[in-house]
Amino acid sequence: LKLPDNSSNSPSDEEIDIIVRCRLLRALSMDNALHHLRSMRQAVQYVFDSEKPDITITETIDSFIIDLFCKESEKRGIPCIGLVTVFVNGLSRISIRGEYNKCRDVADEEVNKVLSTLERVDYLPAFVAKDTKSFRYRVLRRWARNAIKIPYFSLKRWTSGDYFNYHYWSSIIICKSWFNWFPTINIGTPNWKSELDKTVKPVVYLPLQMFPEATIDYWCDDVSVIEYERVLLMTVKKFSGITFLVKEHPNVLGHRKSSFYKSLKSLNNVIVCPTEVPSNSLEPLYDAVLVWTGTVGFEAAIRGKALLAMSKPYYLMSDRDFFRIDQQSTEKSILNYIENFKALDNKKELVKHVLEGCIKGKVQFDGTWREDNSSHHEEALKVAQSLKDYINEYVFPKR
User: Fold this and answer.
1) 326-338 pLDDT, tens per residue?
2) DSSP for 271-325, written as a single string
């Protein structure tokens, strides 16, 4: 960064894509974002030149820094492996940008066992918060933690000697964007079930996703849909002949701006169910599901529901398994798809497809891993062995 400013040249298409997808860079002016991006690219190139790696292993892309490591790997012909959590407990996925990668062969016994688990109404992925505290307490705690992070990370930036630390800097930006003077505790529509019974329109379940999140910023191939809240409101408003059953993500209430909820509930084709209602229990109440890339879409698919999506989810095998919503989509075409939808008859194949894109062992990138926890060590060793097997069979098979 101390080198002469290198942001004078116009940004390339690749640079614009990197900036738009990164939660930190897109919050800066274009000149400042370009200066940081190009300076970091030089630093990454220096690392590759000096270390000369054969392979890059990281978590899935969730910042412009990891994005640059991935792009530099591709330019040098170096395999780049990303790790990310998955909704099947005890497994992880190999994916650098949301894409599907086959990692192993899976026996029918494992497929049947996982399918029976996923079909349970009470099934929850490990990354969905489970807390014995009251719902109200959890929301207030989440809101308070967010507010405290603003001065905390601001102080860390100034006192750590690491002023441009990505985590400190981006945390301040995100926490400010989430900040409310008063938290929203309950967003559910009064008598939401009876309101749902009254509607004569087709019902589309719309589970809100966490944002900003890698699964939206980097897994959606079309950057026009990653302005999540704006695009969501625009989509619901556009398709007024559909009733949208909306539910907030259980790890988000207390973060999202109250103004978004107000705008959402002002639309007369929206019914909001309480956040604490399990998604799987809603299955009899809707005709289709709309997601960006969310795994609720997979749960709907194996339960015989139509799937609408803003981008092709990795867990599907074919474009025929869902309806992609884009700027050309019409309400008529969506309703026609829902009306003529036939439940997938290959849900075992779908589960097998997902499992073959997963490795054994659970990765923990959320700060919960502890060196003195034997089970954490055990999971890490499983991931290491799975990675070794994957690299030997799929990345460098001739070695």
Assistant:
1) 989 999 999 999 9
2) EE--TTS-GGGGGGG-SEEEESS-THHHHHHHTT-EEEESS--TT-S-GGGSEE-
